[in-house]
Amino acid sequence: MSATLVKSPSPALPADPPLRIVPARRVGQGTAAALVLVLLGLGLVSVVRNKAFQWDVVAEYFTSASVLRGLGLTLWLTALVMVLGFVLGTLLAVFRLSANPVLRAVSWGYVWFFRSTPILVQLLFWFNIGALYPQILGVNTVNLLGPVSVAVIGLTLHEAAYAAEVVRGGILSVDRGQIEAAESLGLGRWRRLSRIVLPQAMRAIVPPAGNMLIGTLKGTSIVSVIAVQDLLYSTQLVYHRTYEIIPLLLVATLWYVAVTSVLGVGQYYVERHYARGTAGAR
Questions:
Q1: Minimal CA–CA distance to 86: which of 152, 203, 165, 201?
Q2: pLDDT score of 143
Q3: What are the φ and ψ backbone dihedral angles of 175, each rounded to 5 degrees?
Q4: How far apart are CA 239 and CA 244, in angstroms?
Q5: CA end-to-end span of the chain, whole Å?
């Protein structure tokens, strides 16, 4: 009689614990970050505690009437130059993309010339236009243009050259199929541009346009050389009288920092608005 061997079941082995992922230690990065924070802290303390900055004088003139008037003129000049510059720049961009060789050549020549000459030289030429052309079409040009008019004309013509390239790049970023679809629907050139091309091109136009806006705000300080009483010139008038140069320059600097920070926040939300529906939208 044969015996049957019955194998008893083996006890279940305990499951291995899940492996814990331990990030690699980067001692060098932590040390560098701590060193940078220490240096920034020491620099901030030195600026705050340094009596040569005369923070009490900065506080006194920060909201003075003359400084606020200069700030208002700076903001007005920036807004006007940006609007006029982009209107003219859009026209130049359309000319540059035109099938007409004359319009393309004129647009290219304009952009080439105004991007090749310093803005200060352009302003000085416009400021002395009466010496170059005493009469234009029978109009006496001597004392015809005041400092503010010269600033608007000079800055607008200069900004239009850069705005033209920004707008042209935005238009070229639009898919060619969109334009062909609009053509197949029988839309005219200007309707295609205003209804189809420009709304889609804004995604590519807004970021550099925002940078141009901030650059124009700071660039308006150059009009102080032709006695336009902007923010910088207003502070210069004060320290020429009081000889408190450093604190008055700090007043102008702090106002520029404050305004550009606000513009940067606005640029972020405008970019997010035009980036809706894209992978980069946040």
A1: 165
A2: 74
A3: -60, 135
A4: 5
A5: 82
